Protein backbone atom coordinates (compact mmCIF):
# COMPACT_ATOMS: atom_id res chain seq x y z
CA UNK A 1 0.00 0.00 0.00
CA UNK A 2 1.47 3.35 -1.05
CA UNK A 3 0.90 5.92 1.65
CA UNK A 4 2.25 8.86 -0.34
CA UNK A 5 -0.63 8.77 -2.81
CA UNK A 6 -2.35 12.20 -2.91
CA UNK A 7 -5.82 12.67 -1.43
CA UNK A 8 -6.99 13.91 -4.83
CA UNK A 9 -7.11 10.27 -5.96
CA UNK A 10 -9.88 9.39 -3.50
CA UNK A 11 -11.66 12.67 -2.67
CA UNK A 12 -15.15 13.46 -3.92
CA UNK A 13 -15.22 16.28 -6.43
CA UNK A 14 -18.97 16.40 -6.99
CA UNK A 15 -19.52 18.61 -3.96
CA UNK A 16 -22.88 19.70 -2.62
CA UNK A 17 -22.48 23.12 -0.98
CA UNK A 18 -24.53 25.64 0.97
CA UNK A 19 -24.31 29.39 1.43
CA UNK A 20 -24.56 30.91 4.92
CA UNK A 21 -27.90 32.51 4.01
CA UNK A 22 -29.52 29.24 2.85
CA UNK A 23 -32.32 27.80 4.98
CA UNK A 24 -31.68 24.93 7.39
CA UNK A 25 -34.62 23.12 5.76
CA UNK A 26 -32.66 23.24 2.49
CA UNK A 27 -29.69 21.68 4.27
CA UNK A 28 -31.83 18.86 5.67
CA UNK A 29 -33.28 18.18 2.23
CA UNK A 30 -29.76 18.01 0.71
CA UNK A 31 -28.52 15.66 3.46
CA UNK A 32 -31.42 13.28 2.89
CA UNK A 33 -31.62 13.51 -0.91
CA UNK A 34 -27.92 12.92 -1.48
CA UNK A 35 -27.39 10.58 1.50
CA UNK A 36 -24.47 12.66 2.77
CA UNK A 37 -23.43 13.74 6.28
CA UNK A 38 -21.29 16.85 5.63
CA UNK A 39 -21.86 19.95 3.52
CA UNK A 40 -19.26 22.69 3.08
CA UNK A 41 -20.59 26.24 3.44
CA UNK A 42 -19.05 28.54 0.84
CA UNK A 43 -18.87 32.17 -0.12
CA UNK A 44 -18.11 32.22 -3.83
CA UNK A 45 -15.71 29.26 -4.06
CA UNK A 46 -14.03 29.78 -0.67
CA UNK A 47 -15.01 27.63 2.30
CA UNK A 48 -16.30 29.54 5.33
CA UNK A 49 -17.72 26.66 7.36
CA UNK A 50 -18.89 23.07 7.49
CA UNK A 51 -22.36 21.84 8.39
CA UNK A 52 -22.78 18.24 9.46
CA UNK A 53 -26.01 16.28 9.69
CA UNK A 54 -25.18 15.79 13.38
CA UNK A 55 -25.11 19.59 13.84
CA UNK A 56 -28.58 19.75 12.33
CA UNK A 57 -29.91 16.93 14.50
CA UNK A 58 -28.64 18.68 17.62
CA UNK A 59 -31.07 21.56 17.06
CA UNK A 60 -33.99 19.68 15.56
CA UNK A 61 -36.26 16.76 15.95
CA UNK A 62 -35.57 15.72 12.35
CA UNK A 63 -35.75 11.99 12.96
CA UNK A 64 -37.95 12.08 16.07
CA UNK A 65 -41.17 13.17 14.39
CA UNK A 66 -43.35 11.65 11.74
CA UNK A 67 -42.24 12.31 8.13
CA UNK A 68 -45.45 14.27 7.48
CA UNK A 69 -44.95 16.53 10.50
CA UNK A 70 -42.85 19.49 9.52
CA UNK A 71 -44.27 22.17 11.81
CA UNK A 72 -41.87 21.40 14.67
CA UNK A 73 -38.83 21.30 12.39
CA UNK A 74 -39.82 24.52 10.63
CA UNK A 75 -40.27 26.30 13.95
CA UNK A 76 -36.87 25.13 15.22
CA UNK A 77 -35.12 25.83 11.89
CA UNK A 78 -36.53 29.37 11.84
CA UNK A 79 -34.80 30.03 15.18
CA UNK A 80 -31.32 29.37 13.76
CA UNK A 81 -29.27 30.16 10.67
CA UNK A 82 -26.71 28.01 8.91
CA UNK A 83 -24.07 30.50 10.01
CA UNK A 84 -25.03 29.93 13.67
CA UNK A 85 -24.99 26.14 13.41
CA UNK A 86 -22.00 25.46 11.14
CA UNK A 87 -18.47 24.82 12.34
CA UNK A 88 -16.45 27.94 11.50
CA UNK A 89 -12.83 27.04 12.21
CA UNK A 90 -12.58 24.41 9.53
CA UNK A 91 -9.38 22.46 9.02
CA UNK A 92 -8.67 21.97 5.33
CA UNK A 93 -6.12 20.02 3.30
CA UNK A 94 -4.70 20.59 -0.17
CA UNK A 95 -5.30 18.13 -2.99
CA UNK A 96 -1.65 17.06 -2.92
CA UNK A 97 -1.75 16.09 0.79
CA UNK A 98 -1.00 12.41 1.23
CA UNK A 99 -3.77 9.96 2.08
CA UNK A 100 -1.76 9.01 5.17
CA UNK A 101 -1.54 12.63 6.39
CA UNK A 102 -5.29 13.11 5.89
CA UNK A 103 -6.02 9.82 7.70
CA UNK A 104 -3.89 11.02 10.63
CA UNK A 105 -5.81 14.30 10.85
CA UNK A 106 -9.17 12.53 10.79
CA UNK A 107 -8.01 9.96 13.35
CA UNK A 108 -6.88 12.67 15.77
CA UNK A 109 -9.86 15.02 15.43
CA UNK A 110 -13.53 14.59 16.26
CA UNK A 111 -14.89 15.13 12.78
CA UNK A 112 -15.33 12.84 9.82
CA UNK A 113 -14.81 15.02 6.76
CA UNK A 114 -12.20 17.45 5.49
CA UNK A 115 -12.66 20.01 2.74
CA UNK A 116 -9.93 19.93 0.10
CA UNK A 117 -8.83 23.44 -0.83
CA UNK A 118 -6.35 24.66 -3.45
CA UNK A 119 -5.59 28.38 -3.85
CA UNK A 120 -8.44 29.30 -1.44
CA UNK A 121 -10.91 27.40 -3.65
CA UNK A 122 -12.91 24.35 -2.56
CA UNK A 123 -11.99 21.52 -4.94
CA UNK A 124 -13.19 18.45 -3.07
CA UNK A 125 -14.15 16.76 0.16
CA UNK A 126 -12.74 13.64 1.76
CA UNK A 127 -14.57 11.61 4.40
CA UNK A 128 -13.75 8.72 6.66
CA UNK A 129 -15.92 6.62 4.34
CA UNK A 130 -13.64 7.54 1.41
CA UNK A 131 -10.64 6.39 3.44
CA UNK A 132 -12.29 3.12 4.48
CA UNK A 133 -13.26 2.39 0.87
CA UNK A 134 -9.66 3.10 -0.23
CA UNK A 135 -8.27 0.75 2.44
CA UNK A 136 -10.72 -1.98 1.44
CA UNK A 137 -9.52 -1.77 -2.19
CA UNK A 138 -5.86 -1.78 -1.16
CA UNK A 139 -6.07 -4.71 1.26
Briefly say what this structure is.
By secondary structure, this protein is α+β, with helices and mostly antiparallel strands.
Describe the structure.
It comes from Winogradskyella psychrotolerans RS-3. Keywords: CBS domain. InterPro entries: CBS_dom, CBS_dom_sf, Diverse_CBS-Domain. There is one protein chain. With 139 residues, this protein is of the alpha+beta class. The protein has a single domain (7-138), classed as CBS-domain (Roll). Helices cover 36% and strands 19% of the residues. It contains six helices and four strands; from the N terminus they run H-E-E-H-H-H-H-E-E-H. The chain has helices at residues 24-34, 53-59, 71-77, 82-85, 99-108, 128-138; strands at residues 38-43, 46-52, 113-118, 121-127. The strands form two sheets. Strands 1-2 form a two-stranded antiparallel sheet. Strands 3-4 form a two-stranded antiparallel sheet. The termini are close together.
